[in-house]
Design a protein that fits this description.
The chain has one domain. It is built from 12 helices and 23 strands.
Length: 458
């Protein structure tokens, strides 16, 4: 078993660390919650039907030819390797508006169409070589991000493109009419008045592209423009056999403060508003090759970093998944720090239980209870991670931190109206052994691991 470098100093382990898993286990390993099964999902993902995917050349020549099959194969393999149960695609209107709707599922040999009762296609299934099945659903990201469309908005390609790019309440209505759940991406760039106007079904609490992009970082997050790219470059050292490039995320991961502020503002006004984490992968942001011979922003790597875990009766049913996402019956998990097993956040009031996305009346003695999950297959020989759970109530008076503690459980009174949600942060000491010449210090930092969606008391 590997030994870590002492005191966070530069150096490499004295022996090889435990084998690193480049993919993820089945989501079922997270365990059921009150009879509901976990479905691991990516909400915000680009294919070669986005003009800026694949290093800006997804359909040569001039975005009119066949899609880049190599780039597409990277995405499809990533969904299989990382055992993603559902992928809510979000291709840009400049290209996707021109395509016949069934083409946007990008089905290849062996895939299976999923049709609604009236016969039109609403999803496709990728049947993976490893036995996994991934659902793919169509959406588009422009000023607004409608996800899980049932069909295109009306009109020819030009008319569709105009609607997809419209940024007002009429567009939200058009997207709903097309069967979509309406999301807002890049919440860090939104204002409260605009969110008030749009009243979307959900928003992003974190966007990976924003954490990387040298234009977005200084303008909206107050961060150094090139900080993420410089940090990731440390993982390109091919002379270090003990560094694990999949951990490049911890070199720049920070909570997205402006997005969390916008979310809390909406919840404070009594809105039921779920929030997701957006992978926003294009294979166009970090083309440098890392120590494992894979580009920094490979679909496989970025999709592995975090996901939105929906709780459903049948993870194979796209209509159930969409209903869970729209209701907020899901949580965000940064699985780069470990796959969580047994997470729960719910209000208990007498004999009643209200989980994420549910609403319950104010009840004397009610409590919001959070169960700290364990990390799946955590090697006991590694340094133990540290955890901190925080419970929040958001109401007209603002954001109230009701309780903080290390677990294994944490409770707070939930007898007052408001939106109750939890965050779990982690100090991933167990990952220090995989940082090679960087030393263990980066694994001593404080990172978000889980964001619950709210339970509402009203």
């Amino acid at each position: 078993m590997g030994l870590i470098a002492c005191g966070g100093a530069k150096g490499s382990p004295d022996a090889a660390p435990p084998a690193w898993q480049k993919g993820l286990p089945p989501a079922s390993m997270m365990g059921t919650t009150r009879g509901l099964s976990p479905a691991r999902g990516i909400i915000h993902l680009h294919s070669p039907y986005s003009h800026d995917a694949c290093d800006g050349n997804p359909r040569p020549p001039n975005d009119t030819g066949p899609v880049d099959e190599t780039c597409l194969s990277h995405q499809r393999l990533a969904l299989c390797t990382d055992r993603i149960d559902f992928a809510a695609m979000t291709d840009h209107a400049d290209t996707m508006a021109e395509a016949d709707f069934p083409l946007l599922f990008l089905m290849r040999e062996g895939d299976e169409a999923v049709n609604a009762q009236d016969g039109h296609q609403i999803a496709s299934k990728i049947h993976c070589d490893n036995g996994h099945t991934a659902l793919v659903m169509v959406g588009t990201e422009n000023a607004i991000m409608p996800i899980m469309l049932d069909h295109h908005v009306p009109g020819d390609a030009a008319a569709r493109r105009t609607i997809y790019k419209t940024d007002d309440a009429t567009a939200v209505t058009a997207f709903h009419d097309a069967g979509a759940t309406v999301w807002i991406a890049h919440t860090e760039q939104q204002t409260k008045p605009h969110l008030d106007l749009l009243q979307p079904d959900g928003i992003e609490l974190y966007n990976l592209h924003a954490n990387i992009d040298p234009d977005i970082r200084p303008m909206y997050l107050g961060l150094d423009a090139s900080g993420a790219i410089q940090a990731v470059a440390e993982f390109a050292d091919t002379g270090d056999p003990y560094i694990q490039p999949d951990l490049a995320l911890i070199s720049f991961l920070l909570p997205n403060g402006p997005a969390l502020d916008r979310w809390n503002e909406q919840l404070a006004e009594g809105r039921h508003l779920p929030a997701s984490a957006g992978t926003d992968a294009h294979e166009n942001a970090l083309p440098l090759m890392l120590a494992d011979g894979e580009r920094g922003d490979s679909y496989r790597r970025m999709i592995r970093w975090f996901a939105n875990v929906a709780l459903v009766a049948d993870p194979d049913d796209p209509t159930q998944i969409e209903a869970a996402v729209k209701a907020g019956r899901f949580f965000v998990a940064f699985e780069i720090f470990g796959t969580p097993v047994g997470f729960d956040a719910a209000i208990h009031a007498g004999g009643s239980v209200a989980g994420m996305g549910d609403t319950i009346a104010p009840t004397a003695g009610a409590t919001f209870d959070v169960t700290l999950p364990t990390i799946l297959d955590l090697d006991p020989s590694l340094p133990a991670p540290e955890f901190a759970i925080t419970i929040y109530r958001i109401d007209g008076g603002g954001v109230h931190a009701l309780a903080t503690g290390p677990g294994p459980t944490l409770s707070a009174p939930a007898d007052q109206p408001g939106a109750y949600r939890a965050e779990i942060h982690i100090k991933p000491h167990h990952l220090g052994v995989y940082l090679g010449h960087l030393g263990t210090a980066p694994a001593d930092g404080d990172f978000p691991w889980i964001y619950s969606n709210p339970v509402y008391v009203e």
